[in-house]
Design brief:
With 261 residues, this protein is of the alpha+beta class. It folds into two domains: 2-101 and 227-257, 2-Layer Sandwich (Alpha-Beta Plaits); 106-203, Alpha-Beta Plaits (2-Layer Sandwich), CATH 3.30.70. The chain is 26% helix and 27% strand. The protein contains seven helices and ten strands. Strands 1, 2, 3, 4, 5, 6, 7, 8, 9 and 10 form a ten-stranded mixed β-sheet that branches. Strand 7 (149-160) and strand 8 form a beta hairpin. Helix 4 packs across helix 5 (177-189). The longest helix has 16 residues, at 234-249. The protein is globular and about 55 Å long.
């Protein structure tokens, strides 16, 4: 059978999602716990796949892995969730054998901005240029095998205490896409860029421009949506909420004021 598992993690504790030699990563920790509890024997045989990879420092309230297993029990979440403090497994679903979590209906990423010194109405007006279908070559790190054309369905701003939350919704995103968009809009707000420069960068992607890269830590993978619902355990949803609060409480957005170029 094939199992999909939904989980969250505090990215500040890891060197990114994908496995790397000699450093702690989320993928490495997940593989270890799945092998330890006999759910998989190795990555290749189990056809282990994940929905999204996040940068070093970025966290997730919702990411998804899927794997083939011969040993599945209903208490799988309890068994693996007790292993780590900064990774919480909280949802499970038996899926079709061909299911690949990368092919989601929608992804929602959230970026936290400092509320002080920013005009939310101005931010909304500026960011609206990025909604819809565009070639984002100037606003992403585009890998050679990736199509730079993406469609951002919606960008929503919400005031939340000392933060401004920015939620980006799309089926797929490019590497560093949100962090580069955030960097560009902040430069406009500080008077370092004109909106026409953004419009030109979107309409003429062959003329390369670097608008900088905003920090990774305020970026959170908020949710991944499929055409089915996961089965949730109330106890682990409570642990999920505790982890969310911990991540937000310790969130440092001071570096957002000076995105790297």
């Amino acid at each position: 059978m094939r199992i999909a598992v939904k989980f969250a993690y505090n990215g500040r504790k890891f060197h990114g999602f994908a496995r790397q030699p000699n450093v702690a990563t989320i993928e490495e920790k997940i593989i270890k716990v799945l092998i330890k509890h006999g759910l998989i024997e190795d990555v290749i045989e189990s056809k282990l796949r994940y929905a999204s990879r996040t940068d070093k420092g970025a966290s997730a309230f919702s990411n998804v892995i899927a794997f083939n297993t011969r040993s599945f029990k209903k208490n799988i979440i309890k068994n693996i969730s007790l292993e780590y403090k900064d990774i919480v497994f909280y949802g499970v679903k038996e899926v079709e054998l061909e299911f690949n979590p990368r092919y989601a209906k929608q992804r929602i990423y959230r970026y936290y901005l400092p509320k002080c010194c920013l005009d939310i109405e101005s931010l909304i007006a500026t960011t609206s240029m990025f909604t819809g279908k565009h070639d984002f070559s100037n606003f992403a790190r585009v890998e050679s095998n990736k199509d730079p054309i993406r469609t951002i369905n919606n960008i929503v701003f919400t005031e939340d205490g000392n933060f401004i939350r920015v939620d980006f919704s799309a089926q797929t995103f490019l590497w560093h896409q949100i962090r580069r968009i955030i960097s560009a809009i902040l430069r406009i707000e500080k008077g370092k860029l004109e909106k026409d420069q953004i419009k030109k960068a979107l309409s003429k992607p062959d003329k390369r421009v670097n608008f900088g890269l905003a920090p990774a830590e305020p970026l959170i993978l908020k949710d991944i949506i499929y055409d089915f619902d996961f089965e949730y355990d109330e106890n682990f949803l409570h642990r999920l909420n505790e982890l969310k609060q911990k991540i937000i409480k310790n969130l440092d957005v001071t570096s957002v004021k000076s995105p790297k170029s």
